[in-house]
């Protein structure tokens, strides 16, 4: 499994609109492409003093699946124009990591529901 990790930052006043854009347009658009080997995306958000940081983690079966999503130069970040208008800065290239181990505990089950209900 391959994790494709990317960072983007907004000014605080653009953060909620950017998150809405990701959840309601960009993420569904990615899923609608039906890329073979695409296994989903996660969104992280962190408030800093002067900006808000967003991290996306996309999951793919193989690097070939990533290439089918992003093209031959697969490290180039996918940042649609609407997103660029809200971001103050972002990584031009995504990083890719091979998942080597996962440890889940019973206490962690249901975290998705808790995170979703907290937003």
Task: Write up what this structure looks like.
- The chain is of the alpha+beta class.
- Helix content is 36%, strand content 30%.
- Strands 1, 2, 3, 4 and 5 form a 5-stranded antiparallel β-sheet that branches.
Throw out a few tags for this protein:
alpha+beta, 5 strands, Alpha-Beta Plaits, 119 residues, 5-stranded antiparallel beta sheet
Show unreliable segments.
none
Strand content: 25-35%
The rounded distance between the terminal residues' Cα atoms is 28 Å
> How many distinct folded domains?
1
Shape: globular
How is the secondary structure organized here?
Blueprint: E1 2-10, H1 12-32, E2 38-47, E3 52-60, H2 63-70, H3 81-86, E4 87-90, E5 95-98, H4 111-118
Antiparallel strand pairs: 1-3, 1-4, 1-5, 2-3
Q: Can you give me a brief rundown of this structure?
A:
With 119 residues, this protein is of the alpha+beta class.
């Amino acid at each position: 499994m391959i994790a494709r990790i990317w960072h983007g930052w907004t000014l605080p006043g653009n953060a909620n609109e950017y998150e809405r854009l990701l959840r309601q347009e960009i993420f569904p658009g990615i899923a609608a492409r039906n890329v073979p080997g695409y296994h989903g995306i996660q969104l992280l958000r962190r408030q800093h003093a002067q900006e808000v940081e967003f991290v996306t983690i996309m999951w793919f079966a193989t690097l070939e699946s990533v290439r089918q999503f992003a093209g031959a130069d697969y490290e180039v970040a996918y940042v649609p124009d609407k997103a660029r208008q809200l971001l103050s800065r972002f990584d031009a290239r995504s990083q890719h990591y091979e998942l080597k181990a996962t440890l889940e505990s019973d206490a962690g089950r249901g975290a998705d529901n808790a995170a979703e209900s907290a937003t």
